[in-house]
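Protocol step 4 of 5: obtain the predicted structure for the target chain.
Materials: sequence only (see below). No template structures provided, no constraints applied. The aim of this step is simply to have a reference model before the mutagenesis design in step 5. Sequence pasted as it appears in the construct record:
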Amino acid sequence: MKHFTAHCWTFPFDILYILWAKKKSFEVLSKNYKLEKRILNAFKDSFKDMLERGSIGRHTGVENKNVIVIPNFVLNPFYLGVLQHETYHAIHDIMRQVGIPFNEDTEEVFAYLTQNITTQVFSKFF
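Step 4 output (structure tokens):
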């Protein structure tokens, strides 16, 4: 399992990435990231739903916590695309929470946050 956190620039949010996840990963994460039990349970439920639906990856946001899980991650162009896809969902969720809608006037702040997060994530691999 590989897990790491990307910090969201000037916003009070982080995105926790969990790659190659297994069930016990969540106990480790609750200790390492000090997730409250109710938040951890929400992530577990989302992970279970993702597996039941046969999804490749999932972003789940609960309050100011964002988690991206890709259980069978392989470092290749397809899975890097999935990673970016789920990051896109997380960024939009964060921006909604801080009250910034996506439109022509705000697209640059979305682009900068996307660049910042992508740089942090890709630095874990390259």
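Step 4 remarks: The two ends are 17 Å apart (CA to CA). DSSP finds four helices and four strands in the chain.
Proceed to step 5.
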